[in-house]
Specification:
By secondary structure, the protein is an alpha+beta fold. The protein has 12 helices and 7 strands. Helix content is 59%, strand content 8%. The longest helix has 19 residues. The two termini are 25 Å apart.
Length: 266
Amino acid sequence: MDHPHRSDVTARFAELVSGADHQIPLDEAAALIAAHAYPGLDVASVLVQLDEMADGAPADLDGLLHHLFEVLGFSGNASRYGDPRNSFLNDVLQRRLGIPISLAVVTMEVGRRVDLPFEGIGMPGHFLVRHAATPRVFVDPFGGGRILDQADCEALFHLMHGESTGFDSSMLVPTGKRAMLARMLANLRQLYLATGDVWSTGWVLRLRTAIPAGSASEMADVAAAHAALGRFMEAATMLEDLAEMLPEEPGRRARAEAQLQRSRLN
């Protein structure tokens, strides 16, 4: 049986992600994810911590990055990358440790508080942020806040994926807030599945299904999450909608999977 507080924070998360993407309060939504791992977490106090970190922070790029990564000491947790605490905003603020996307959230939200806007950049394998006022300037929060240009981003991509893997500038297009939250949940799902934590996998999947799906890949991901939760009708309906968006052969496979999900209702 779910903790009563968890039902409230799940409903609040679903409410936030259903609105216009640019209006989603990324800090609160990320804190609500953490509140599922920590029932009773005071979400408002997590937001106050961000306020305090922004208090007195410089409103220029170099100054803010120095404040976050030198003065406050945020850094990437390379030695224990798979620790779930690296994904929970309350833990990241407390421990000053995180993975690329959680450190990106901190950078974006402290920056927003001092009127220095950043955008998330969902480069495959390594999340970055972009200084919104100077779109060719990228920041690697996991790398201590170092500033990158496009050539640096490409070099980082090849370092992770190999020189033979093709890089495209479209990989540096800004990522919406819903997509960021979905990526955070995907990271957690992978961690919990690897450790066999069925209970935690369950709440992660419930949150993932609350995020409206936009692209075909997101629709497939949400359909899989519905199926894992035993919501076979919802999974089938989404797969049928997905089939209408796909070419003939992938569409046929999506319809066959939808029939399979419907058969599980009997």
